[in-house]
Amino acid sequence: MNATQTGLLTGLALGLAGAFGGLGAFLIVLVLGAIGLLVGRALDGQLDVNALLGRGRDR
């Protein structure tokens, strides 16, 4: 399992642990899962954080 998958699963697990049901729980899981996915992709090197922040690699 790579860092992307680990980050996504961690975010989903934290969302499920903090959620108690309903639409609010769905949104919590969705947001934390997305955050976990982004962190995992950044750790894998598949996401350039500097490009997202407006600073390219050419500097």
UniProtKB/TrEMBL annotation:
Q: Give the transmembrane ranges.
A: 12-39
Read off the lineage from the record. Bacteria, Bacillati, Actinomycetota, Actinomycetes, Pseudonocardiales
The UniProt keywords, alphabetically, are: Membrane, Transmembrane, Transmembrane helix
Please report the name of this protein according to its UniProt entry.
Answer: DUF2273 domain-containing protein
